[in-house]
């Protein structure tokens, strides 16, 4: 076989594989959305699930997922920003920094089920928080924090050196430089990264099985007192999220329409993830335009 | 007291004035330092706590329940509820390794091909179509992969091969889709970072594009490509729900790829909620979690080793 024929065959194979990957994703998304879309209705999105009867919805689960995401971000963002700023601005090259970097790397590669187990042992049992939204949010924080640190660190490293030096030369303190000069410039990148990370959190289930729990109490959506047991806003109630619900009905669902519910819920989850993805891109571009006056 | 009080006072005033000018800066600087240091401390304490708590529970099996390490790692039979409980975790270890290795074997060629396409063949289309596709694939939640695996891949395998369709093959296929983005992204970065001079030299000598790719580009970036594969394997090894949904969950080493099996993660997922904290069965599950934790460290150190090779 001449070198030219080999080149043509190999190029053909690479084209085919790349096309295959695109087809697989299109097939995946198409399958999930087309199978599930027929089942999605206002009733499905707002009503409570049924255990053994048909016609259950995913209302509480959808609410729990969104609420949990908000709680998680409230805890993660300040911690992640702080740690990211430390890594990019304050850490001096040396053994300590190398160790911290290793720790972030290890933490980011811990399996999410192990983080869930840690949550069960420490947050749920030792701290006595029980199966609750708050426990779930803490577990998801552990799961999300390394990513948040990396996003912040990279965003800050992307800030032009001249702007940082100009600010320091004007006599501003390092902290003032970071908060008033560098963070605004890094915001588009941080926001994009955070929304993408939020999409990941939204679909996470393994870390939540043993922290936020696999059941949802009857919620009274007219009761907005965050301390009441039946209030949806109470962060100390057990809460099954959408992703956990999909897992549960797939493995032990008793309702006769379990597979349709799984399909519908998967479609909702995928649509939300797509919204997060495209939203992140769009919003990042928008912020970038707004902050830098470029087209 | 014969010390010149006036001079002292004067100096103090000066010092005060100087301090007044510096003060807000110093305070600001300290706020920043303390705040970021606390954040880092939280990270460090968290990982320390994870390692400590999981190990302390995981080691109870050996200390209190008298199971030997070799018995756990090498035992073939897992039957914790029997009269004479048996804690042989080899079937799960086998399941975890075989699914993640197979997944890496499927995903690595695909991912490297995609990376080559995006960097060497058609960067334009690659950036505009393939890259968003890979990013979207990375964003799909694992339960959705599990659901698709259960409703598409398992029936497909059942109609082609003998058996139920569930098993290591189904798990490996689902996992390969999940780790494809990891492998592709790292491979793309590595290939894009290759200096143009090497490639141009090869072309100038009359090599075809394919010859350049597999004689120059791939060998030079091999450590980085392997890093991606190892990271992908590490992700596959720790993935719980998607695998649990398609693997069948029977606690023995299967005779074929299409027979029900289990992984470390799947058995933890299923049994942790059904056992009493502190019972021998429960402790054994924590030991399995400890194995997962240890493997994470192994993967991280392999990646570190490969990165050192890359930088040389």
UniProtKB/TrEMBL annotation, chain A:
Signal peptide: none annotated. It is a multi-pass membrane protein. The chain crosses the membrane at residues 12-34, 66-87, 99-123, 129-147, 181-202, 261-280. Keywords: Cell membrane, Membrane, Transmembrane, Transmembrane helix, Transport. Residues 62-280 form the ABC transmembrane type-1 domain. It holds the Pfam family BPD_transp_1. InterPro entries: MetI-like (IPR000515), MetI-like_sf (IPR035906), Phosphate_PstA (IPR005672). One of its GO terms (molecular function) is phosphate transmembrane transporter activity. GO terms for biological process: phosphate ion transmembrane transport. The keyword S-adenosyl-L-methionine does not apply. GO terms for cellular component: plasma membrane. The keyword Cell membrane applies. It is found in: Cell membrane. Belongs to the binding-protein-dependent transport system permease family. CysTW subfamily. This is Phosphate transport system permease protein PstA. The lineage of its organism: Bacteria, Bacillati, Bacillota, Bacilli, Bacillales.
From TrEMBL, chain B:
One of its GO terms (cellular component) is plasma membrane. It comes from the Bacteria. CDD domains: TM_PBP2. Pfam families: BPD_transp_1. GO terms for molecular function: phosphate transmembrane transporter activity. Part of the binding-protein-dependent transport system for phosphate; probably responsible for the translocation of the substrate across the membrane. It comes from Paenibacillus taihuensis. The chain crosses the membrane at residues 34-54, 90-117, 129-154, 166-192, 284-306. Gene3D superfamilies: MetI-like. Residues 93-303 form the ABC transmembrane type-1 domain. The keyword Protease does not apply. Keywords: Cell membrane, Membrane, Phosphate transport, Transmembrane, Transmembrane helix, Transport. This is Phosphate transport system permease protein. It is a multi-pass membrane protein. GO terms for biological process: phosphate ion transport. It is found in: Cell membrane. Belongs to the binding-protein-dependent transport system permease family. CysTW subfamily.
């Amino acid at each position: 076989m001449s070198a030219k024929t080999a080149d043509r065959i190999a190029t053909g194979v690479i084209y085919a594989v790349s096309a295959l990957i695109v087809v697989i994703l299109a097939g995946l998304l198409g399958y999930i959305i087309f199978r599930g879309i027929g089942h999605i209705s206002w009733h499905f999105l707002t009503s409570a699930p049924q255990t053994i009867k048909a016609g259950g919805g995913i209302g509480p689960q959808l609410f729990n997922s969104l609420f949990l995401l908000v709680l998680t971000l409230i805890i993660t963002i300040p911690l992640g920003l702080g740690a990211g700023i430390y890594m990019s601005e304050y850490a001096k090259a040396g053994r300590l920094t190398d160790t911290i970097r290793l720790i972030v790397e290890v933490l980011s590669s811990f399996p999410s089920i192990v983080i869930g187990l840690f949550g069960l042992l420490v947050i749920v049992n030792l701290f006595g928080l029980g199966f609750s939204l708050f426990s779930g949010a803490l577990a998801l924080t552990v799961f999300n924090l390394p990513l948040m640190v990396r996003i912040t660190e990279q965003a800050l490293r992307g800030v032009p050196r001249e702007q940082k030096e100009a600010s320091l030369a004007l006599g501003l303190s390092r902290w003032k430089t970071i908060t008033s000069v560098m963070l605004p410039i890094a915001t588009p990148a941080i926001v994009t990264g955070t929304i993408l990370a939020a999409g990941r959190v939204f679909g996470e289930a393994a870390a939540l099985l043993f922290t936020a729990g696999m059941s949802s109490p009857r919620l009274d959506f007219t009761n907005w007192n965050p301390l009441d047991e039946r209030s949806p806003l109470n962060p100390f109630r057990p809460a099954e999220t959408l992703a956990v619900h999909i897992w549960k009905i797939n493995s032990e669902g008793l309702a006769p329409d379990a597979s349709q519910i799984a399909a519908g819920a998967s479609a909702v989850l995928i649509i939300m993830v797509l919204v997060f993805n495209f939203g992140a891109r769009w919003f990042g571009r928008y912020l970038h335009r707004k902050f830098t006056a470029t087209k | 007291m014969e010390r010149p009080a006036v001079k002292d006072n004067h100096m103090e005033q000066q010092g005060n004035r100087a301090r007044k000018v510096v003060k807000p800066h110093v305070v600001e600087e300290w706020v920043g330092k303390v705040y970021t240091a606390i954040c880092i401390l939280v990270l460090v304490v968290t990982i320390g706590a994870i390692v400590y708590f999981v190990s302390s529970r995981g080691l109870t099996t050996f200390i209190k329940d008298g199971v030997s390490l070799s018995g756990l790692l090498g035992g073939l039979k897992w039957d914790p509820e029997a009269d004479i409980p048996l804690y042989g975790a080899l079937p799960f270890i086998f399941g975890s390794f075989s699914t993640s290795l197979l997944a890496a074997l499927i995903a690595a060629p695909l991912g490297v091909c995609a990376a080559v396409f995006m960097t060497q063949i058609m960067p334009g289309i690659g950036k505009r179509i393939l890259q968003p596709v890979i990013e979207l694939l990375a964003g799909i939640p694992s339960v959705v992969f599990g659901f698709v695996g259960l409703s598409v891949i398992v029936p497909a395998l059942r109609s082609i091969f003998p058996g139920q369709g569930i098993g290591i093959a189904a798990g490996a296929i689902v996992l390969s889709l999940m780790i494809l983005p990891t492998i592709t992204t790292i491979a793309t970065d590595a290939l894009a970072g290759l200096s143009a001079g090497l490639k141009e030299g090869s072309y100038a000598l009359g090599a075809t594009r394919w010859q350049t790719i597999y004689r120059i580009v791939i060998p030079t970036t091999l450590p980085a490509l392997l890093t991606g594969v190892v990271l992908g394997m590490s992700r596959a090894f720790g993935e719980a729900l998607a695998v649990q949904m398609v693997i069948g969950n029977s606690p023995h080493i299967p005779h074929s790829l299409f027979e029900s099996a289990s992984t470390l993660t799947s058995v933890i997922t299923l049994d942790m909620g059904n056992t009493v904290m502190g019972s021998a069965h429960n402790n054994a599950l924590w030991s399995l979690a400890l194995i997962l934790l240890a493997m994470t460290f192994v993967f991280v150190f392999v990646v570190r080793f490969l990165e050192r090779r890359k930088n040389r």
